[in-house]
Amino acid sequence: MFYDDDADLGLLEGKTVAIIGFGSQGHAHALNLRDSGVDVVVGLRPSSESVATAREAGLDVSEPGEAASRGDVVMMLVPDELHRAVWEGGVRDGVAQGNLLLFGHGFSIHYGEVEPAADVDVALVAPKGPGHLVRRQFTEGSGVPGLVAVQQDPSGRTLELALAYARGIGCTRGGVFETTFKDETETDLFGEQAVLCGGISELVQAGFETLVEAGYDPKMAYFECLHELKLIVDLMYEKGLAGMRYSISNTAEYGDYTRGKRVISEQTRAEMRKILSEIQSGEFAREWIAENRAGQEHFLHLREQQADTQIEREGQELRSMMDWINPSF
Fold this sequence. Notes:
Layout: E1 16-20, H1 24-35, E2 39-43, H2 50-56, E3 60-62, H3 64-70, E4 73-76, H4 83-94, E5 100-103, H5 107-110, E6 121-127, H6 131-139, E7 146-152, H7 158-168, H8 171-174, E8 176-178, H9 181-196, H10 198-213, H11 218-227, H12 229-247, H13 250-263, H14 266-281, H15 283-293, H16 297-307, H17 310-319
Parallel strand pairs: 1-2, 1-4, 2-3, 4-5, 5-6, 7-8
Antiparallel strand pairs: 6-7
């Protein structure tokens, strides 16, 4: 693990960092680096709605290719599915010999969507949290932990520079773990699909529907299967699984031990192994790349379909009465 004392922010002195993209991660990285005293330029298409937002925040904005040409360090933070188009559309020509090319996720390097020249340093700096949290914790004086990996090191200083960047965005405050592009990409995709997004979303939906189909009030079902999830996850986050179990009732703990494996059965675990193998073989990456090249029709249909479920409608009504919740979208 690397912490503040292991990273020299001074290595970025006199250098310009180009942040390509200004979404969840992009805005956090750009603002945190700016507040750390680093010279930052944001790369955005002139038609992007984020141009005005970035300029209102006091940031310098240029077209992506021009921003890359101005940057000694170039961080790609556009969505994975846009990396190839943005790279080939100008960023590639702007990354010069000796520059450091950074990624916030290893997808496009690991699966060959972006192929940098051999004379360019290539590394990964990946905060393990969403961008708004990266920004908020930085302003509060703490930081989201992160991962760092080196793919190409012609300069011999790639890791040092990547750690300087990680310090600039606050990650070394929380601790940075060294890994590889391969391991970051495959574990990240698996976690999203099998547990953090796909697994939990489907589990919450199934629990809600089971109670509603049995005749229980949908509002009660929402509270039991979705709302209270945050309270349990917060306990896990703070104390681990054992600490969470210590904080709940004995009844809940016994139900956890005796019923949990009936829900997450050997069949579920077998499917998890299959999902992991699809990630490792590149099958998922090929499917997602093909989906994007075909215009995202299936993806957008799934998004629309899931946004109109009963649990979403009930949740929207209940959350509107919870004035302590301040949604960001």
